[in-house]
Design goal:
With 121 residues, the chain is an alpha+beta fold. The chain has 3 helices and 6 strands; from the N terminus they run ααββαββββ.
Length: 121
């Protein structure tokens, strides 16, 4: 993991995600997550752990999707924990992540909710 640029601010994680995803680098995307992180994806399911997140992104990135940077909403942070969010350009609701500062000062994702859908009804 040390060969990758580290997120030194919570907001760096989104930029690094877009760069690594667009490069087709599933290992680089997984390196943005803590070892036991939880991702609420695919829709209606949870992907648990960095290894499972990497396997998921290997499948997703095999289709060569391209991600565009999304302007972040204000970050909420306290005591080494932060909540980051972006309003997706596709209007699908919101994306949110709980991130935690690491002993070296960098930040990694702990919880990732890449899609919030509006409730039906």
């Amino acid at each position: 993991m040390s060969e990758y640029e580290k997120a030194m601010a919570p907001e760096d994680l989104t930029r690094l995600f877009v760069e690594r995803s667009n490069a087709g680098d599933a290992a680089g995307v997984a390196a943005l997550y803590e070892e036991n992180a939880v991702m609420a994806y695919p829709p209606g399911q949870f992907t648990v752990g960095r290894a499972a997140i990497r396997a998921l992104w290997e499948q997703v990135l095999a289709h060569r999707p391209q991600f565009a940077p999304e302007p972040p909403l204000p970050t909420l942070a306290a005591d080494g924990i932060a909540l980051t969010a972006t309003p997706p350009k596709d209007g699908s609701g919101a994306r949110a992540q709980v991130v935690r500062q690491q002993p070296d000062g960098s930040w990694l994702r702990l919880l990732d909710q890449p899609e919030f859908q509006r409730p039906q009804g």
